[in-house]
Design goal:
Layout: E1 5-9, H1 17-28, E2 32-34, H2 47-57, H3 59-74, E3 78-83, H4 85-95, E4 102-106, E5 122-129, H5 136-149, E6 152-159, H6 175-190
Parallel strand pairs: 1-2, 1-3, 3-4, 4-5, 5-6
Helix pairs in contact: 3-4
């Protein structure tokens, strides 16, 4: 297994301990992991607070910060990864980076540009079932659109888990689903 160069984006809660723990887990498997703070040190206790901050920051500024964080490493071929809002950010960057090696989405997806095109980009999504932010209809449409881009997509759904079920500090946490997610995700990264 070759170590991957991973860009891991935080959720709307900001750069919390669970993101650092995930990065440590990935590093423990031999990967190089970069964890940018797109919120300049701000963390939030609720999704609503985080979304309000993100809206104040603006989508363009958030994306600009993400691109600047990834730029020094993208020449070597990044695996983009993220949690919820961070997954949406990772998806946007991966679909625009011809050197992207993979895309690991935890708890989130994003709109797909009509002209987006990739060359069999490996994509893995882990999502709660049901998930209030990732409805069944949305995921079906997203899956078909991602396939049209040329991506090679796998979706793993976790019945009964909360939205951000890999974060042990949140009420959404589901230990069994989180353990399975990391086992499958590390296996995915080992194939890239």
């Amino acid at each position: 297994m070759a170590p991957m160069n991973i860009m891991l984006f935080h959720s709307t809660y900001g750069l919390r301990p669970a993101v650092h723990a995930a990065a440590a887990r990935l590093r423990g498997a031999g990967h190089e992991v970069h964890v940018p703070d797109l919120f300049d040190g701000h963390t939030f206790e609720t999704v609503e607070e985080g979304m309000a901050f993100k809206d104040e920051l603006g989508k363009d500024e958030l994306l600009k910060r993400a691109v600047l964080a990834a730029a020094p490493y993208s020449e070597r071929g990044l695996v983009y990864a993220g949690f919820s809002l961070g997954a949406a950010t990772a998806q946007t960057l991966a679909l625009g980076d011809e050197k992207a090696r993979g895309l690991l989405l935890l708890h989130g997806t994003s709109d797909i540009a009509e002209n987006a095109e990739v060359d069999e980009l490996p994509v893995q999504l882990h999502v709660a079932d049901p998930d209030p932010f990732e409805t069944g209809d949305w995921l079906n449409s997203w899956y078909l659109q991602m396939q049209r881009t040329g991506a090679d997509v796998e979706i793993y759904r976790y019945p009964g888990a909360g939205h951000l079920f890999t974060d042990p500090d949140l009420p959404d946490y589901d230990a069994a689903s989180a353990d399975l997610t990391w086992k499958v995700a590390l296996g995915f990264l080992a194939t890239l």
